[in-house]
């Protein structure tokens, strides 16, 4: 069986930026939406499916120009936002198989071939996604768990002497000299990499004991947060059709000052969303080491095995 015939509607020098695949019936109900290049999105139908795309100039979106533009962060951000905006509209209309960013074909006939060649798996994926939404749950480690990397401890106050003169804590009579390696220095027991231990008395020994306690508290807090994150994800997965645990985002990307211990994605039946929300709220109470954040709904990016055009 050959692909359904398609008469190209885009002018010469124009390509097709694919946003996603939807059932043909959904495409008919799609509200007007602006895609890339400030033009309305278009649709190619075939094999009971529809490919939603933007007509884009190849002198900007062709293979070589596109490769250069993808290295331009400003261009990439604008384009990615426009692409996601279209995919988000599709996801709110019905099931959608989102296309990978920067999936560009030379004309509409190539899209018809794609719909024909991948009809079986695209149809199965759309059926699996129907009636579901992707929701995210992020878990941030609350203050009071792991302390800052520097431990927050204040080292003993010292004054720097002249050449050959040891540093001295100006603490008055009876205060031991803090001179690393010197005869009067407090005894230090190397208790393992990165874990200072100390015996004796005085400001230096007290500081090392505080530091050791803080490192232990930090390790305990990290273990508690990791355990809570695993427990939360396992329970939420039981309320979802599918679940994925992504790598936690760096604070520079998340915009949060506290470290992320959980970055989960869950494909939730629409009819079970209220129950899923209630479970997230209950888990937040049961796991005080984490601040849970529910985000969504999102297009089902996390649950596409093979994106169209890839």
From TrEMBL:
Region called Disordered, residue ranges: 146-204
Any one Gene Ontology BP term: gas vesicle organization
Subcellular location: Gas vesicle
This protein's record includes keyword Protease: no
Top-level lineage group: Bacteria
GO CC annotation terms, alphabetical: gas vesicle
Segments of skewed composition (Low complexity): 175-204
InterPro entries membership: GvpL/GvpF
Keyword Iron-sulfur on entry: no
Keyword field: Gas vesicle
Pfam families cross-referenced by the UniProt entry: GvpL_GvpF (PF06386)
Family, similarity comment: Belongs to the gas vesicle GvpF/GvpL family.
Protein name (Swiss-Prot/TrEMBL): Gas vesicle synthesis protein GvpL/GvpF
Species of provenance: Micromonospora echinospora
């Amino acid at each position: 069986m050959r692909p359904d015939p398609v008469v190209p509607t885009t002018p010469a020098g124009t390509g097709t930026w694919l946003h996603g695949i939807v059932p043909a019936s959904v495409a008919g109900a799609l509200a007007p939406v602006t895609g890339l290049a400030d033009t309305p999105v278009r649709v190619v139908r075939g094999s009971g499916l529809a490919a939603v795309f933007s007509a884009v100039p190849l002198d900007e979106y062709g293979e070589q120009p596109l490769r250069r533009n993808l290295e331009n962060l400003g261009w990439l951000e604008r384009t990615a936002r426009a692409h996601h905006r279209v995919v988000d509209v599709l996801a709110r209309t019905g099931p959608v198989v989102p296309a990978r960013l920067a999936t560009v074909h030379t004309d509409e006939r190539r899209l018809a071939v794609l719909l024909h060649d991948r009809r079986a798996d695209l149809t199965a994926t759309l059926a699996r996604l129907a009636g579901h939404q992707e929701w995210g749950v992020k878990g941030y480690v609350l203050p009071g768990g792991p302390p800052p990397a520097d431990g927050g401890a204040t080292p003993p106050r010292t004054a720097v002497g002249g050449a050959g003169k040891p540093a001295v804590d100006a603490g008055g009579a009876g205060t031991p000299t803090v001179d690393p390696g010197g005869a009067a220095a407090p005894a230090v027991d190397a208790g393992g990499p990165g874990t200072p231990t100390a015996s004796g008395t005085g400001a230096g020994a007290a500081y090392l004991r505080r530091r050791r306690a803080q490192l232990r508290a930090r390790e305990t807090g990290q273990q508690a947060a990791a355990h809570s994150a695993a427990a939360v994800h396992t329970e939420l997965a039981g309320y979802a059709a599918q679940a994925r645990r992504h790598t936690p985002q760096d604070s520079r990307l998340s915009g949060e000052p506290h470290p992320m211990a959980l970055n989960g994605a869950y494909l939730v039946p629409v009819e079970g969303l209220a129950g899923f929300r209630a479970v997230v709220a209950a888990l937040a109470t049961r796991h005080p080491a984490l601040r849970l954040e529910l985000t969504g709904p999102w297009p089902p990016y996390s649950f596409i095995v093979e994106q169209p055009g890839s």
